[in-house]
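Structure first, sequence second, as always.
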């Protein structure tokens, strides 16, 4: 009788262990699904807020740099030259993401200072500006 009871207890423990393992597997699968759903919600929120920021800014901007011989001189008018379409896209994407700077091939653009700085010579600086495309 003692052997029989002991084997029944052993079977019950094994069954409980199996159920606990199954419960843990189901719990981890549910947690994984919730985590994925939360990530998808965050991603869709990010995409919607990014498009909202673009719309609030009035659309896509065109970026210009001052090509005057003395860009900081008051005696000469500014000569604004548009950036190439590839550079403009890079600059605009970084601006929308609220980056502090963006690196182009030969220059760095600092948004807060509204300044273009040459990578090799920090003293070569020029003002930049942004206008909304119509």
């Amino acid at each position: 009788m003692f052997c029989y009871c002991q084997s029944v207890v052993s079977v019950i423990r094994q069954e409980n262990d199996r159920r606990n393992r199954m419960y843990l597997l189901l719990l981890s699968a549910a947690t994984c699904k919730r985590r994925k759903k939360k990530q998808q919600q965050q991603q869709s929120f990010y995409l919607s807020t990014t498009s909202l920021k673009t719309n609030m800014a009035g659309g896509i901007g065109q970026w210009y740099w001052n090509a005057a011989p003395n860009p900081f001189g008051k005696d000469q008018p500014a000569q604004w030259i548009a950036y190439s379409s590839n550079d403009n896209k890079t600059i605009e994407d970084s601006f929308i993401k609220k980056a502090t700077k963006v690196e182009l091939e030969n220059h760095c653009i600092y948004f807060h200072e509204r300044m273009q700085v040459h990578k090799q010579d920090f003293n070569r600086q020029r003002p930049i500006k942004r206008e909304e495309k119509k």
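Margin note: Residues 2-56 form the longest helix (55 residues).
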